[in-house]
Specification:
- The chain is an alpha/beta fold.
- Helix content is 49%, strand content 17%.
- The protein is built from twelve helices and twelve strands.
- β8, α8 and β9 form a beta-alpha-beta unit.
- α2 crosses α10, α3 packs parallel to α4 and α7 crosses α8.
- The chain is elongated and about 65 Å long.
- It starts with a helix and ends with a helix.
Length: 344
Amino acid sequence: MKKIVIIIVLAALTVVIGSIGCKKDGAQQKQADKAQYQIAVIPKGTTHVFWKSIHAGAVKAEQELKAEGVDVEIIWKGPLKEDDRESQIRVMEDFITLGVTGIVLAPLDDAALRMPVKDAVNNGIPVVIIDSGLNSDDYTSFVATDNYVGGRKGGERLAEILGGKGQVVMLRYQEGSASTMNREQGFLDVLKEKYPDIEVVSSNQYGGATTESAYMASENLLAPLRKADGTLTIDGIFCPNESTAFAMLRALQDSGLAGKVKYVGFDSSDRLVKGLADGEIHGLVLQDPINMGYLGVKTLVAHLQGKEVEKRIDTGSAVATGENMNEPKMKNLLEPDFKKWLNE
């Protein structure tokens, strides 16, 4: 009888040990299946062409690194709208919990994202900031356009086509967005420093995160500036990003004013390119978002590999006009080929 009990106990132990072994093997296999470098890329939003181009650049970097034998995986996730700070914070927290190797982040708010970035770094997850700055030094590198310089270029272009004199307005984007705040300040500063005969009659209105809210803000901004004959009392307009630029274009078109007032925007989309070609927009300050996404990922992987990386990397900007928009370099910036990398 004792022998039978011992045999049963031994059999039970064998089953338990085997079960533990299987679970352990499963966990090890799951860990083995995970890429060596699992990089989360978190944009401000996912709808605008600019963010699709950032995504394309990240995928381009992933494919290039894989071709070089680097085991890397890009995970793209962000809020739908560019005013959803809480959603972006939750995405950050989820990736920290997941234990990704690193994060490439375009912070929606230069203050609200400080603690999530700090939490990531405290958990051994380095962060590269792209597009828009953060009021913190916890990041590994900041890869972005020099937005202040971009804003100055917008001001220079508007001043040039106005002959250095006239009245202008600026529709801001939204509070807390460091990239656009820097553009707005650059625009105002260059006019104040170099063009005393240009008066900024309005610079305190905000378009908000969506084209719809920016369209309403554009209408509200233009309404008191209309003369009895329907024309405007101002000579020029500046908008600091894609959504405000397109919303203002729509408002001008709907009022029959497109092309009748000098207008400079920022960033690109199919509709803005058409506006430039049709003479309804007189300048677009362009970034290089594909390069920004690409360098964001490449810089983070280089850091993870123990290489030294620069704390600040400027991805550059240029001004497209009706005269230069068909030049090869400008055409690539106006119409970035993001579909090539995203299989769209």
